[in-house]
Amino acid sequence: MVGLEEVQSTEFPEDSVTRIEKANVIFKQLNGNGFAQTAGILLVPGMASLVLASQALSPDATSAQIGIIAEEAVNLALGLAPSTNPSTTPLPMSLVQAQVDNPKHVKGDLSRHILVRNMFDKDEETEEIWAEDVKLDFTEEGGKLGKLLFVKVMSQQPGGKIYASFECVEGAAACAENLAGRWFDKRQLRVEFVDDSTISSIA
Question: Considering the domain 113-202 in this protein, what is its CATH number?
Fold first, then answer.
């Protein structure tokens, strides 16, 4: 076309990670999966510092499949439309399932709210104000990663659940990445993003 010039670069825009996150949310709304469950996204600089960094490669993923995913990620980071190539090979189900079962994988659509499981065992707690102590510990740790607006310890329910809301998505994502898969008092933590209605129902 007249007046258009193709420009190629090996550098990523400063907001490439944000663009990828936004595109992933849209993909999840469209197809229910998005592309956050694919490890090739980690090839984009900056992704390793966020939630997507906690995902692991499966030996079932071929280099061709990883290359395709990486190319899509690069296109999204550069603001280009995703490929509509019908010959794109889908990832094997074993890779997808590995991500679903991976404790280091943060489930759900990116949001300001997270649910952390296995933080405590209510049946093993003996001190009278243990729930308040757990809340204080969580607030101190989570507050290092972003401004917390709300923390609720579900002390009467099984599963060791804590809900937390951050001022911004970045804080929630950083906290989720930091906690997902970590071991705490012989319990492995699992984290998922939750929506506004979930938080409203427990507040």
Answer: 3.30.70.330
